Amino acid sequence: MSKDFTPDEIAAMHDANENFDGSVADFEKVRLFHEIKKQLTEFNQKVDGAVAGYYEPNTHERNAILWLTLPPGVFLSSEPTAILADVLAKTDNLSVSYYEDKIELVFGLKDIWKK
């Protein structure tokens, strides 16, 4: 049985890692985070009904996440598709879920902070 997680549930799991206290940023990962954030904002402007979001990297979370919420049946032209493909190439993992008539794509960057 599978479980589709809402953005709030993902945020709670993300915030539950209380014991991590990073001290050194992986600057390449931080740079990627900001590139992806910019690309998702651009994607958001090109696709009707798309909503981009993210949690800023912080020293208490080893990983960082960004996401896109899309309407069902979304049609992507070549430009937003190219943006999405580039974002996928830059991220370490992807989660796809569907809830409340919305498609959620959650992009993860691992080890943005190191101890």
User: Biggest β-sheet, characterized?
Assistant: 4 strands, antiparallel
Our count of domains comes out at: 1
How widely separated are the two ends? 36 Å
- Mean pLDDT, to the nearest integer, reads 88
Task: Using the CA coordinates, give the radius of gyration.
Answer: 14 Å
Assign a percent range to the helix content: 25-40%
Topology:
Layout: H1 7-15, E1 24-25, H2 27-46, E2 51-54, E3 64-70, H3 78-90, E4 93-99, E5 102-109, E6 113-114
Helix pairs in contact: 2-3
Description:
The model has no long low-confidence stretch (mean pLDDT 88). The chain is built from three helices and six strands, in the order H-E-H-E-E-H-E-E-E. By secondary structure, the chain is an alpha+beta fold. The longest helix is centred in the first third of the chain and has 20 residues, at 27-46. The radius of gyration is 14 Å and the shape is globular. The termini are far apart. The strands form two sheets. Strands 2-3-5-4 form a four-stranded antiparallel β-sheet, covered by helices on one side. A two-stranded antiparallel ribbon has the order 1-6. It has a single domain, classed as Heat Shock Protein 90 (2-Layer Sandwich).
Descriptive keywords:
115 residues, alpha+beta, Heat Shock Protein 90, 4-stranded antiparallel beta sheet, two-stranded antiparallel sheet, 6 strands, 26% strand, globular
Short description:
With 115 residues, the chain is of the alpha+beta class. The chain has helices at residues 7-15, 27-46, 78-90; strands at 24-25, 51-54, 64-70, 93-99, 102-109, 113-114.
